[in-house]
Amino acid sequence: MLTILNILGFIAWPLTGLTMQTVDGFAIDLRGGPRGGNLLGRNETSFNQRSGQDFLDRETSGRTSGVVGQLPRGQLYTEEGSKAPLNVTSGNMLPDDATIPIFLAPQADSPFVAKRVFGLLISYNCTVVKSASEFTILNKRQNVTDFRNRDLGRNGILYPATEDDSGPSIVTLLRTNQTGLRQPYLNASMEVGTSIPWSNFSYSTRFRYGGYTEMDEIPGINEPVLMEVALWQQRPSSVLTARGYVNVTVRGVEKNELVGLRGLYSDQAAVGCRCFASSDVGFADVDGVKSSYSNFTSTIPKLRGGNVVEYITPLRFEHGVVNRAVSARYWTLNTITLSQGIIGRIDLFTDWYYNLLTSTGFFWREQRNTETGEFFLGSVIQAEDLRATLLRLHHSYALQLMYDGTIDTSLSWSNPNITLATPARVLVPGVVPPEVVLAMLAAWAFGIMVLAALYQFRRRWTEKLNTFNMFMLGLGMGGVVNVAPGDLVRGTKKKLESLPGTIGDLNLGGQVGVIGLTRGPGTVARRNKRY
Description:
By secondary structure, the chain is of the alpha+beta class. It is built from 11 helices and 22 strands.
């Protein structure tokens, strides 16, 4: 037993060194570290002060460029004590699941610690809908024939025929299979339902990004906005080429089809997602070395100089995400040479379905071509692809709100109230979980203590079991084993191996015991007996 415990201890001690390792990181000196630095990102006076059209153009461009989700310097903050796997050294991407709020603050070249830093607090999460019964807003949808056309145009956007502008909003987008630029050869229809009231949700124009009016009571981080999306798509069997129609093979919905919504649009199968999003703006204490924030207090951003800028509305993350899902209608092309040779600027309506396709790598991954080189999509958008697209929309809008979607250091501004960290070698968890080593050392220590408590206070026959004591204890063994005393000294191997292994009483029945080498149970000494 003692051997097993010692082996356990000897194994555990070296493993303690594997519970930690040193890596390149950052250390900070709050008493004498470097103060002040340049930050990239919006502050309190500039958060609501920007052009609506430029904001929308940058968001669309960023979302379809394939780099959305990358923070300018990789600095992300969560609540203190959160177990989110953040990496201070290599930086972080915006997570796909931000059920626990994350704080987006201006970014520096290295982590920093500061009090009262302005930033955007956001929370979001998107899940695939596996049954139409999971919808709570779109289950109140109306037939398309009951909708009135307020702004159909080339967008194919229909609005609900309801006079109750204070209730949840449902917007239907229709797309016909048109030839021309960016032709994916798929008919599609999409319905977006949101808990934002219609009167507020429709408050966005070509020059005004989605936001709240000054009269609105803006929700906070604990008041999530629900967005439900149902996407119908038709799987074509052929595409139109220069030689006429050519047969193609396009995969339909392979998983999580909403069977209850099948047939609502001709020959189109449906998939769906539900997203929750909330936000707030304000100040918080940040610790870049721990990637945590604390003491968040909400505020209303003020414009620089107190001036009111035309077309400016209070920006919020959850409102803008829903607006962008249905109102990303304008696509600006600059310096286009027209057929008449005139150079000018043309505003084209954005194909909302093309935006869905290109928001992730789905469009390029699923692109196929015919024998003559015409391109077509090899699959409709699957449910998981729709979820990835909606998450990309959340990422893109958050980065635009806080950082204008850029990593350009020329847009930095100086903040004298931050303490920057410096590169250093720091300790981080190793390859062996410390709980494993702790359990081994605890078992070793507990076992040793139990053995000590059991045997420390027992009477001992001799201080050491050396050769001399073996000789003395073996003198009285003549009647027990056939070993002569001389064999103990000469060490005859077989005879020595036949010796008993315990020391005990050779005269159990007598009043005076005899100490010697014994074999078998019941030979231990008794305190009330003389020897």
